[in-house]
Amino acid sequence: MAFVIIKHLSPGHESALRILRKTCEELIGRVVWDVFPDLDDTVFGEKYREAMDRQAPIEFEDYYEPFDVWTYAKLFPSPRGLTVYYQGITGRRRAEEPLREANEEFAAARSIMGGGKNVLPRPN
User: Fold this and answer.
1) What pTM did the predictor assign?
2) Helix or strand or coil: residue 60?
């Protein structure tokens, strides 16, 4: 299993610390799986391992239930470790939810109506 040691937090990391509910001291020099053991069986853990195994950049969006946040992540692996850039997108995802629901309802109605075909006779 690939491991990731947290070595550095970039400037402006205060918001990340609030989201992660950790201090710098709790993160720096620690293995990510030790700091966040529940991360292993998530999309985040899967993508971290995939990036390290493939040695290729990966970007993805996912919801992290323990912190109730949606995150956009860019992963940049190297033989020395993994650089991770996060962007909180919870607000955007919540704003998009009504549109997603409306699209699902439209698709269901379309399916009931014969896949979008004109099922009623056209007026003459």
Assistant:
1) 0.66
2) strand
pLDDT at 29 > cutoff 70: yes
Residue 43 CB-density burial (10 A; 0-12 exposed, 13-18 middle, 19+ buried): middle
pLDDT, residue 115, reads: 60
> How many distinct structural domains can be found in the chain?
1
Under DSSP, the state recorded for 107 is H
Q: Domain of 97?
A: 14-112
Q: Which residues pair with 59 in a beta bridge?
A: 74
| Residue in 13, 84, 9 with CA at minimum distance from that of residue 45 | 84
The CATH number assigned to the domain holding 79 equals 3.30.450.20
Residue 1 lies in a domain: no
Place of tokens 């056209």: 122
